[in-house]
Design brief:
With 237 residues, the protein is α+β, with helices and mostly antiparallel strands. The protein has 2 domains: 2-89; 107-236, Cathepsin D, subunit A, domain 1 (Beta Barrel), CATH 2.40.70.10. It is built from 6 helices and 11 strands. Strands 3, 4, 5, 6, 7, 8 and 9 form a 7-stranded mixed β-sheet that branches. Strands 1-2-11-10 form a 4-stranded antiparallel β-sheet. β10 and β11 (232-236) form a beta hairpin. The N and C termini lie far apart (64 Å).
Length: 237
């Protein structure tokens, strides 16, 4: 019986390795060799065949079983196999759905990516909000590529250390509500996630003239690049 137990252990070990390998392939989307092999075509079949092989080998290792148990195992593992294949087939939709949930639960959250870029997800209203620090003060910005500069609301400006009584509202600008006067300022620091920028030109709006601070071009121009991909704003410091 000793050699049978050893053989069973060997087969179980190999089965576990095969299943782990299949899961890694499934999660990573690794493009198998040779180079001309299209994983988008072979991926679902790879997962399905591996799952079927796992069921077959497991039945040999742990058998014999009743017909009822066999059919029960087929339904259970078949269901798992279908879930894996469906998850693979709709992985892009699942990822995009996750982005939308993130945008609704944490609007403006700046997430640093492994490649050093910073990602922000579009919020439920369809806009990009960016959580940042201005001179150490937390400010929630609205991305506005039509704004020539960073513009702070009166309340956000005071939070960052700019007092309206000490500002000079002399610069005329065009807004959606017509012409307005704003006060020129210099931001010592603007920080988004771990990216930190210094000496940025900006403006402060009069009290009640602006609902949300705007992340305009004087802030965006400090980035090496930025782009919009679907529901994501990708910024490269």
């Amino acid at each position: 019986m000793g050699w049978k137990n050893a053989f069973r252990g060997l087969v179980v070990g190999l089965l576990i390795l095969v299943c782990v390998w299949a899961v890694i392939q499934f999660l990573s989307g690794f493009e198998m060799k040779p180079e001309n092999l299209d994983f988008d075509e072979t991926g679902p079949r790879l997962v399905a065949l591996t799952a079927l092989a796992a069921i077959f080998v497991a039945s040999l290792v742990f058998g014999p079983a009743s017909v009822k148990d066999i059919f029960k195992g087929i339904f259970v593992w078949g269901g798992i196999m279908l879930l894996l294949v469906a998850g693979y087939a709709y992985r892009h939709d699942l990822v995009n759905g996750g982005y939308r949930v993130l945008g609704a639960l944490a609007p403006g959250l700046a997430v640093e990516q492994p490649d050093g870029s910073i990602m922000v997800v579009r919020d439920a209203s369809g806009h990009f909000r960016v959580n940042a620090l201005v001179d150490g003060a937390p400010i929630d910005f609205l991305l506005d590529t039509g704004a020539s500069a960073v513009v702070l609301t009166s309340a956000d400006a005071q939070r960052a250390g700019f007092h309206p009584s000490e500002l000079s509202f002399t610069v005329p600008v065009s807004t959606a509500n017509g012409r307005a006067l704003v006060a020129p300022i210099r931001l010592d620091t603007l920080q988004i996630a771990d990216a930190r920028f210094s000496d940025i030109r900006g403006f402060v709006a009069r009290e009640g003239a602006l609902e949300t601070s705007l992340l305009g071009m004087t802030g965006l121009d400090r980035l090496r690049s930025w782009r919009i991909e679907g529901d994501r704003l990708i910024m490269t410091p």
